[in-house]
User: Which sequence fits this backbone?
């Protein structure tokens, strides 16, 4: 029985299944909803299968069509990839459930093929082991994401997604130029081979700069975040959720991989710059979030701030390695879950009140309690209060900072938490009070409330599962002793 | 100076030129063209660098990459154009909202 | 099978589980909700009784759960934690009965009782925490679950009070977090240990340890309402009376004070703390708070605000007892943890009764109220006299031990503080008692709800009478085994000053 599970090529299924489903949904739009939901949950199962496989046999390798590197494409999954796949599957199933009730039929028919395509790209990205394949999947994901952001066709959404498209294309081209330079110098695009061959030279420096800048643009690191708030705030709620929680994380994941395996020993100076930009993002993004009067913009700026935290780890990690990278991984996972929950809850609030002005929320806490519970629990993780995934991430980061005597980082971390508490509770406070203008509420389907709440619960639960999850991260690359391929 | 190096420089030049145009111009069609120019620059670099010193036959892998890259670029351009057309139909001009404010 | 590791978890779960179920109940399921609350409270009391017996006979209960690779969540039952668990368990029971009467027919009761149970859960968690990170976890949880109770009424005023409350507590929480992580990066452990775990550290770390101590005390001082971090407490008075009662007697302020006891005795160790020279400033801070709180209380006309400032002052007796740093003063501080809880909860119950029955919110409206509500005012009188320190009520015992302890530790100045604050207590409580009992009632009360021949609903009357009786008994029978005083002595002998 066990050997059956561990022998199935789960990695292939994770890519083929959603792509086939995307085509099927495009061809038979009438069954798109059912097909999409089944696919979403099959992805969860397949990821579980892959997880089992990895825990039994160690890192996963698959050479597509029997052609290995350098000519063929190799699939690879270690602990880090597995965690990203799992987060994406989990958030994906939540978003799928939500969307099935959220969209009208007309939008549903366009939503499913694009969303399944996006899931294909995400899974393929997390399973890629070479930097060119990462480019292709990144671009595929970007295009699907832009199309999704433009789904509603109103002028805000169109201009938001146009800006998003230009930014994402610029980012990928910059990344691709870096790939070209690296390939020229070392004759390979395979990450682990690159890790062995890489040395300090002007070409490597140039590619480090180009790739880091391109990916930072796609991840919306301050001051390259200009495209994020309009695109994320104008998209439909489930799309905002998947953009904020998964799509920016995918480009960050590539950055993380490159730095852990290739750039960390060379990047002195750049890591300080990234840390500095991250710190500015935390403060500036949080202050902007605090200033907003519209809920969805508040949540979008909160994403800008939370992305800043991910970059705070770079200067710490280059110095000591393990703790800070684990902290980043944890923050990525918990933000993915919490931010998805928060955007879905915001979507419910918007639908319920037909507006998203924070000050005019009308006693929502007793009228849609599940949604507000989701918002509050997600907020707890975003602020970094215990017990939640966000708390563990911040604890690890704070520990790394203090053990290196980096007071500046510690202060930024705490200040960021205080500001985050400010904007989360700004919303929660108004949820209790009565609005000056009463309005006719819309009924929210239970599946939309529960999908937000369950994702928020998962973000909280992450705070209690730190031991097993952190030991998963150790499978394969991340601990620094880059694993030798069989 | 080898011809490969020259082509690489031209490619980098195109990349920089495209970047400049992307930032300077407000009209979306120009922005989309700028992105395409940048893309061509990157492809040129890839092709040029495929001929590495001391080898008779050029390395085929970058060629494969360029072909893949072109396919990606075409789809991206198509998406960008349709978005631009829809935006023009809605708002009456092919510009991003805050660029509009600047040029007024 | 060995049940011991399960006992602490069950103690926490006995209020957590009913709380979570209550959230899901429809508003009109009054009976089921009441039953769940009371069954939870009874189970908790039974467990407390079981543990009291066990701990008395040197039995230990401990649960560990991995949180991070080298950090565990620890729940441990010892004499000190049990003192606090017992207080929370007993007062939860009483306050729940009171809240059922108080909130009769008011909206959103499921939400209220749900968070109420979670609030007790967090307090019990704080009490049982066996290391600093577990403490921190429940400490922050308490902040979160009390917020909905503070803004429960949903008015603009409540929202603003909630905001003030959060600004203070979240800020305090971050200081505590910073101090905790710093300590951890220095020592690699956070386990509460008798005599502390820091005295072996190199002498070069001493300045750092003083800063860490200040961070931890500042973080805890917010909840304990140490001056100048007390600003939130009077504002939070907008919350419903049972919430105020719980906040002032067990949940929030007590948790801060309890944390300070933990930090001084089980993290730093009292001898090491004296060596570092941090106890004297803490004692001065506590003394300042005692006098300042009493002075402010003197000028409040609103009854609940006067009681709130009185809390500011009274909580610092506990901290003073700890900071005087001698066994007898420590007994005084610890026993006040219980005594203040019993007396203050009585006073808030009575204030709630006056407001609910007669619409009285101000001291100036209380003339002659003793004739209209004799039982309520009798309970109030016991609480107030206890606060002043009149024998044989519990408050006297606390002050007596604090005074003796100060003399024993050669800190005679404390006597002046004690006398001064007792005079101030008398100055702000005696006029109320005089007005209530000896002045003529007005022709009509601000509003008058009729309860037939009774002065008010029995659910509102029973709790203050119970707690007043407990305050009296705790003073009268202080020398019996299992009295708060004897238990405080046991803690001091076994945990703090063991040979």
Assistant:
């Amino acid at each position: 029985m066990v050997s059956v599970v561990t022998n199935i090529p789960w990695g292939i299924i994770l890519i083929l299944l959603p792509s086939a489903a995307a085509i099927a949904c495009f061809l038979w739009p009438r069954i798109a909803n059912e097909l999409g939901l089944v696919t979403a949950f099959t992805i969860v199962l397949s990821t579980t299968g892959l997880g089992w496989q990895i825990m039994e046999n160690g890192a996963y390798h698959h050479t597509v069509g029997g052609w290995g590197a350098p000519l063929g494409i190799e699939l690879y999954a270690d602990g880090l990839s597995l965690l990203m796949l799992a987060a994406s599957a989990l958030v994906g199933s939540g978003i799928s459930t939500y969307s099935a009730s959220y969209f009208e039929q007309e939008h549903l028919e366009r939503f499913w093929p694009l969303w399944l395509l996006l899931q294909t790209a995400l899974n393929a990205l997390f399973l890629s082991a070479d930097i060119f394949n990462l480019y292709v999947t990144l671009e595929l994901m970007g295009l699907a994401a832009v199309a999704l952001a433009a789904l509603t066709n109103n002028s805000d959404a169109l201009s938001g997604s146009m800006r998003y498209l230009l930014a994402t294309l610029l980012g990928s081209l910059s990344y691709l130029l870096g790939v070209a330079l690296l390939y020229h110098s070392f004759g390979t695009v395979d990450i682990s081979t690159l890790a062995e061959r890489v040395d300090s030279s002007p070409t490597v420096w140039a590619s480090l700069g180009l790739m880091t800048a391109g990916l930072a643009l796609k991840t919306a690191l301050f001051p390259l975040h200009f495209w994020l708030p309009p695109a994320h705030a104008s998209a439909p709620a489930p799309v905002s959720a998947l953009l904020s929680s998964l799509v920016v994380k995918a480009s960050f994941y590539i950055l993380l991989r490159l730095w852990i395996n290739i750039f960390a020993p060379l990047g002195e100076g750049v890591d300080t710059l990234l840390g500095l930009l991250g710190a500015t993002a935390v403060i500036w993004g949080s202050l902007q979030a605090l200033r907003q009067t519209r809920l969805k913009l508040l949540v979008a700026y909160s994403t800008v701030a939370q992305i800043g935290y991910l970059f705070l780890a770079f200067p710490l990690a280059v110095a000591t390695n393990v703790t800070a990278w684990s902290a980043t991984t944890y923050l990525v996972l918990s933000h993915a879950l919490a931010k998805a929950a928060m955007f879905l809850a915001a979507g419910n609030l918007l639908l319920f009140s037909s507006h998203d002005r924070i000050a005019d929320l009308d006693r929502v806490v007793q009228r849609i309690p599940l949604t507000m519970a989701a918002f509050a629990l997600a907020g707890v993780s975003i602020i970094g209060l215990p017990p939640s995934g966000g708390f563990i991430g911040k604890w690890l980061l704070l520990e790394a900072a203090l053990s290196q005597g980096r007071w500046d980082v510690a202060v930024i971390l705490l200040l960021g938490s205080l500001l985050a508490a400010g904007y989360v509770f700004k919303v929660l406070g108004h949820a209790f009070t009565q609005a000056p203008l009463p309005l006719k509420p819309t009924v929210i389907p239970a599946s939309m409330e529960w999908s937000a709440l369950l994702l928020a619960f998962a973000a909280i639960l992450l705070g209690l599962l730190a031991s097993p999850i952190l030991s998963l991260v150790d499978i394969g690359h991340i601990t620094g002793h880059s694993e030798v391929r069989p | 100076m080898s011809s490969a190096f020259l082509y690489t420089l031209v490619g980098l030049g195109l990349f920089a030129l495209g970047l400049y145009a992307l930032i300077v111009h407000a009209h979306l069609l120009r922005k989309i063209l700028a992105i395409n120019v940048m893309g061509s620059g990157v492809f040129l670099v890839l092709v040029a660098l495929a001929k590495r010193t001391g080898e008779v036959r050029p390395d085929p892998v970058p060629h494969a990459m360029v072909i893949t890259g072109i396919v990606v670029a075409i789809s991206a351009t198509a998406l960008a154009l349709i978005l631009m057309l829809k935006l023009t139909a809605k708002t009456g001009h092919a510009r991003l909202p805050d660029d509009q404010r600047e040029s007024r | 099978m060995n049940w011991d590791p399960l006992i602490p978890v069950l103690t926490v779960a006995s209020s957590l589980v009913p709380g979570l179920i209550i959230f899901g109940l429809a508003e009109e399921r009054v009976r089921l909700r009441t039953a769940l609350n009371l069954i939870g409270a009874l189970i908790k009391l039974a467990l407390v009784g079981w543990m009291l017996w066990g701990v008395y006979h040197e039995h230990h209960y401990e649960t560990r759960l991995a949180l991070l690779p080298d950090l565990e969540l620890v729940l441990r039952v010892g004499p000190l934690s049990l003192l606090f668990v017992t207080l929370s368990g007993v007062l939860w029971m009483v306050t729940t009965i009171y809240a059922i009467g108080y909130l009769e027919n008011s909206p959103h009761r499921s939400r209220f009782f749900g968070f109420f149970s979670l609030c007790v859960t967090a307090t019990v968690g704080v009490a049982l925490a066996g290391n600093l990170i577990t403490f921190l976890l429940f400490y922050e949880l308490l902040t979160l679950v009390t917020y909905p109770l503070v803004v429960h009424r949903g008015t603009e005023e409540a929202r603003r009070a909630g905001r003030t409350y959060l600004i203070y507590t979240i800020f305090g929480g971050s200081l505590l977090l910073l101090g905790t992580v710093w300590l951890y990066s220095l020592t690699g452990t956070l386990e509460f240990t008798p005599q502390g775990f820091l005295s072996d550290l190199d002498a070069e770390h001493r300045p750092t340890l003083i800063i860490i101590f200040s961070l931890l005390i500042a973080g805890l001082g917010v909840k304990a309402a140490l001056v100048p971090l007390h600003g939130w407490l009077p504002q939070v008075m907008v919350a419903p009376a049972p919430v105020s009662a719980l906040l002032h007697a067990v949940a929030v302020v007590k948790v801060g004070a309890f944390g300070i006891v933990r930090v001084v005795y089980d993290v730093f160790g009292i001898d090491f703390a004296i060596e570092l020279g941090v106890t004297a400033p803490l004692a001065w801070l506590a003394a300042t708070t005692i006098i300042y709180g009493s002075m402010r209380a003197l000028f409040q006309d609103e009854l609940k605000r006067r009681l709130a400032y009185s809390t500011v002052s009274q909580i610092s007796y506990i901290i003073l007892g700890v900071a005087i740093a001698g066994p007898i003063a420590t007994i005084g501080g610890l026993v006040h943890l219980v005594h203040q809880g019993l007396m203050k909860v009585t006073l808030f119950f009575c204030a709630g009764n006056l407001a609910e029955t007669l619409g009285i919110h101000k001291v100036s409206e209380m003339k002659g109220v003793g004739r209209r509500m004799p039982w309520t005012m009798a309970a109030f009188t016991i609480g107030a006299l206890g606060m002043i320190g009149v024998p044989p009520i519990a408050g006297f015992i606390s002050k007596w031990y604090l005074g003796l302890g100060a003399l024993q530790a050669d800190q005679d100045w404390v006597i002046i503080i004690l006398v001064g604050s007792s005079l101030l207590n008398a100055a702000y409580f005696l006029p109320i008692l005089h007005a209530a009992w000896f002045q003529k009632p007005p022709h009509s009360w601000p509003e008058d709800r009729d309860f037939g021949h009774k002065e008010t609903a029995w659910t509102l009357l029973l709790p203050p009478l119970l707690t007043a009786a407990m305050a009296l008994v705790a003073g009268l029978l202080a020398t019996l085994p299992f009295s708060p005083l004897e238990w405080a002595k046991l803690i001091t002998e076994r945990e703090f000053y063991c040979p």
